[in-house]
Prior knowledge:
Pfam families: COMM_domain
Protein name: COMM domain-containing protein
Number of helices: 5
Strand content: 15-25%
Structural class: alpha+beta
Shape: elongated
Amino acid sequence: MCVTVQLDEQDFQDSVLALGFSEQQQQTLSTFYHSKKEEIQSALLRPTLDIPHYKDLDWRVDIQLGSRALHHQVTPLVSMKLSLDNGQCVPLQTDPNNLLHMTQVLEQALQEAKGQHTRRIQRTFK
């Protein structure tokens, strides 16, 4: 925010002080801000973020039904290979309970992404 409105040294210190930072923290933030100001500005001026996108997903379920030591052991694992559009492959392995939890969290994130607040933020960065 400070970079986008081109705050001078005094305004920056007032802003940081208003947020409740100590004098030492204020000096540290000010030094860091001024040393990285151009990098922050160039990052904010880039039109889009270069985030890898989903391309393909291969999966399988591995189940060990038993062994000599444990006759009634059932250990299902879901193995997945997520392929991204930049050529990178990400291997994942989890149990069904964690997979269910991940699915619920991703569905919740998808619902939030369809919300009004998210659309406003997306319009700001376009």
